[in-house]
Amino acid sequence: MDINKIKRIIAQDYDRRRQIAIEKRYYENDNIIKDKGILPNDTDPIRNADNRISHNFHQLITDEKVAYMFTYPVLFDVGDKNTNTNKKIAETLGDDYKSESAYLCTNATNSKVGWLHYWIENSKFQYATVETEQCIPVFDGKLKKKLVGFYRYYEIFEEDERYDIKSYVIFELWDKKHCEKYKFKGNLSGTGLTYIPEEYNTFNHDLGEVPFIEFKNNRNMISDLKKYKDLIDIYDKVMSGYINDIEDIQQIIYILENFGGESLKEFTGNLKRFKAAKVGIDEKGIKGDLRTLQIEIPVEARNSILDILKKQIYESGQALQQDNEDFGNASGVALKFFYRKLELKAGLTQIEFEKGFNQLVRAIMKFLNIKDWENKPITQTWTRNMISNDLENAQIASQSVDIISDDSIIKNHPWVEKPEEEIKKLKKQREEAQKRRQEIFANAGGFDDTHNKDNDNKE
Hints:
Blueprint: H1 3-12, H2 14-27, H3 33-36, H4 57-70, E1 75-77, H5 85-93, H6 97-111, E2 113-121, E3 124-130, E4 135-139, E5 147-159, E6 165-174, E7 178-185, E8 194-195, E9 201-204, E10 212-216, H7 229-248, E11 253-257, H8 264-274, E12 289-293, H9 299-316, H10 332-338, H11 340-367, E13 379-381, H12 390-399, H13 406-411, H14 419-443, H15 450-458
Antiparallel strand pairs: 1-13, 2-3, 2-10, 4-5, 5-6, 6-7, 7-8, 7-9, 11-12
Helix pairs in contact: 4-6, 7-9
């Protein structure tokens, strides 16, 4: 690839990286108020306090959505009842699956889209989330756009022979067959990148497709922060100004006329010592005066606007109202109504994530040499982490027996994370119960339990 083209790609991608950095700052509670504050540029003798208070609304709303969707991992079923395909897929996903799923959602929420990279290492299927700011996808020009290439670039730091830390930029070019790696001396903040030709590297990956999977936050690829960033900025300003006023009001400004003394130091000393100040009379016979100037704080107005802003932030962010305590023993319908806005937001993200998870599962089936992996239907089961009425859920489950299959009841049960293992446990539990019945009846006189065996086999 042309070296100058690589430099242009990195330079022209500055605005996108900058926007992602801002969104991540808000997630880390490092809002713009930290840089600017609210004091005017000119020095104001009355205003001294410069509090810059950042509020973590974005982090709370993002984590709420991620926990709601991915506290319980998504379950996959490829329909192979007589094989261990589902179990093999779960084993390949490994222990990191839940964590990576949640991190993907956090990345997508902050940066419009999350990217998952997969590869084969030591005959094992590996995968990891890639930071969105490092990723530039290359799609074809068709309506159903297909990923035909991928640019990934990132900054690394290495020690030289003098133990000085030097920064380098790695640029990777991926296609469906191989990867090329270019190394530059310099950093992403500057324009002076120097190519190091002896560090060039290329290798074949034999995966048959570009090994990066897209996970959109929503179809329009809009970050959640965009919906309420302006509201958070105003909230930060109002609260910072509020605290500034409280600090400044503690400093009383004295207005003196015809002060009968030599210096302000003498005035403050007399005021502390005698609780009084001496004033004189000018040449026109006008007696001096002592007044104080204090800042008035519009407390009610500010409290009102803060309450309005807080409510609007949660409304715009489609989040749960944090200070609502009216759901002590509410029914399932009332609780679902409470979650309705969060569910709408999560549902749109789920639609996009389902496509990404299907692609990941098919890549795993291909790696496992599963027959007809391209055409197998994949069923995903999502379980929300929400407040529920346990008594009501237990009644629904018990009333569903013999109406729907045990598999469906178990897969949708909020306590079950691994349905196949639960089904095996339930089957083993029934077999042991049947053995105990046979032993009891045999000891009681050899009662024939054939009828019960037939019924259990039908189940």
